[in-house]
User: Which sequence fits this backbone?
């Protein structure tokens, strides 16, 4: 697990897992194994601190790990939506509505690729089930804010609370420098993913294309 134990040397570890080293700049390197994350941070300067083939290989493997994490997250959300008795889209909206200030209906609809009527229908069902409530935006009365009710908060806490507690425990095993490096990396990953999401342009659906062809 992360932060547990020290490697005997780069290339081996007591339990037999190979240890790899990733240079992160400023003469610092990060050691990790099993694809599980960093286990040690070293301060050395190989050849002036320039990353070599090992760093490139480790970076590629890190991207593979991120893709695996993305697939695991998709599986988790789908499974917990079913366990909560909710369709996936309603569950995703409810998760966003649990945030302290709630979420603007228009924003979550855009994030999930939903048109206004679809978003309204999903919010209606969540409100009927007493999982969210609608509230006017405090500064723009044209906007509606979705906020989870106590029942909605309990639903999300039951679904995701145990995992979040385990992730907190896992993060606590990292040393301070490891937390800083990993936290900064994940923040950059989140920003990059959002940047690509915002840059994506929707294509006409097959139904829209068929309608346009029929009309022409």
Assistant:
């Amino acid at each position: 697990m992360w932060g547990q134990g020290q490697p005997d040397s780069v290339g081996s570890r007591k339990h037999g897992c190979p240890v790899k080293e990733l240079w992160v700049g400023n003469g610092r390197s990060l050691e990790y194994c099993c694809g599980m994350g960093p286990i040690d941070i070293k301060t050395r300067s190989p050849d002036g601190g320039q990353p070599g083939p090992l760093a490139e290989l480790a970076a590629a493997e890190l991207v593979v790990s991120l893709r695996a994490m993305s697939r695991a997250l998709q599986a988790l959300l789908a499974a917990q939506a079913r366990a909560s008795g909710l369709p996936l889209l309603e569950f995703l909206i409810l998760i966003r509505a649990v945030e302290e200030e709630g979420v603007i209906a228009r924003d979550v609809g855009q994030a999930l690729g939903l048109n206004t009527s679809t978003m309204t229908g999903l919010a209606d069902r969540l409100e009927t089930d007493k999982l969210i409530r609608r509230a006017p935006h405090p500064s723009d009365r044209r906007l509606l804010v979705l906020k989870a009710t106590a029942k909605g908060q309990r639903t999300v806490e039951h679904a995701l609370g145990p995992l979040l507690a385990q992730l907190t425990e896992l993060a606590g095993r990292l040393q301070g420098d490891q937390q800083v490096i990993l936290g900064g990396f994940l923040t950059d990953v989140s920003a990059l993913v959002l940047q690509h999401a915002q840059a994506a342009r929707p294509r006409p659906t097959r139904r829209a294309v068929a309608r346009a062809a029929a009309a022409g």
User: Anything to note?
Assistant: The chain has a mean pLDDT of 79. The first helix runs from residue 53 to 83. The first strand starts at residue 19 and ends at 25.
